[in-house]
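Second attempt. The first submission of Nudix hydrolase domain-containing protein had a stray character pasted in from the spreadsheet, which I only caught after the job came back as garbage. Lesson logged: always re-copy from the clean sequence file. Corrected sequence (259 aa) follows.
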Amino acid sequence: MDDAFEIKLTVNDGIGILEWAGQTDQATLDRGVSLAADDALIGRGVDRLEVQIPADDQMAMRALHRARFRREGRRRKAVRGPDGSWRDVLVYARLAIDQVYGPDGFSGVMNTVLPTHRIIGHVLFRDEAGRILLVETTYKDDWELPGGVVEPNEPPRVGAEREVLEELGIHVRLNQPLVVDWMPPYLGWDDAVEFIFDGGVLDQATIARMQLPETEIRAFRWVFEDEMDAHIYSLSARRLHRLLAGPTTIYTEDGRELD
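This time the job returned cleanly.
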């Protein structure tokens, strides 16, 4: 019943916790959460207002989005459902300084709830003998091209250049990618989008300047094409064989060209 619905606000040292209980409809919940948030953050001077909801509570999720709360994380298997099974909990918060109204307010919320993907930038280097440069990492068995995960708000090309400097100790200037590939989940990672750039041929003077970083990279490995399959993941092998056959910019999925 609507009259059983109740919203509770607890405040401690500038941080508010918002909770509610009882049966109600979407419109009432939307209005109640919005008014409670404005009262806490504007009327009572709360700096931060937090809410935790079961991950499958669509009504609560809609109400929080409309009140411009931003999702901050997920607590896995943190609450029991009515059937006794464990369910994930979503953590939301709204700050007094958050942009709430206008397009920026809506986009700020959606930016925290829509899917995100890792972006990876790797670089294909060869030496004067035609060998390919791979790096042997300390945290997995298969070798890979130099490069790594792109930072937030960093272009893939710039991220690849930064990673090469961190891993090899050399500065490079990259241009168009050789391949843009969608990578399926692997080794505990979610899916990702990877850019592979052409680093060209490294001369002996440049190779002599390469230095191993203190962490993550165990060794540099120069291999011919017919040697690399024994050391790299099958996805990487498919892409590299394709790139070495003809350096044309392509888009692939799981290392495979589209029909």
